[in-house]
Predict the 3D structure of the following.
Amino acid sequence: MPAARESLLDAAFAALEGRPWPRVKMAEVAAAAGVSRQTLYNQFGSKEGLARALVRREADAYLSGVERALSGASGAAGPRERLAAAAVWTVRSATENPLVRAVLTGCWNERLPTSVTSVTSVTSVRTASPGPLPAPGELLGQARDRAVRLLAGDWPPGAVELPLACEAVARLALSYVVAPAPAADVARMVRTVLA
């Protein structure tokens, strides 16, 4: 039931936009997704399982966006421009999505499903575990590692070491998430630092 699972996650995300997670009701999520409450419980096991899967999906979507930016899908040509595009994606994604911001920074507020950080494995027997949620440093490390892998063949000889450049850009983008500024500013900053 992949379609039901995605519909339920979409409904949970929409519900979270309207009210704090503790006030989100499983019956409302199921109804919004057009499935029974039993289907929701079969898919996720509990409200905590739903929250965990939702946060995992948003973290994975963030990493997919990083890969798109680094692959040049945004129209950025050179490796520095692609790193700048990944930094901009990071800032925009964290600005627009409170779950991405929370996973990147480790700062969870009362509106978000805070129990997901302590749940070890709450899933239905029928559903594969969404995997552990990354800590902020781990998610940033995953973004950095993807940058190193995707830019390795294009990195100019004689430039700063690629892993160091990717780490610096990831941390620079995170600083823009923690101390907000326009996303376009981070691209200019990345280009300046890597020049």
User: Anything to note?
Assistant: The longest helix spans residues 47-70. Residues 118-129 have pLDDT under 50 and may be disordered. The radius of gyration is 18 Å. The chain is about 65% helix and 0% strand.
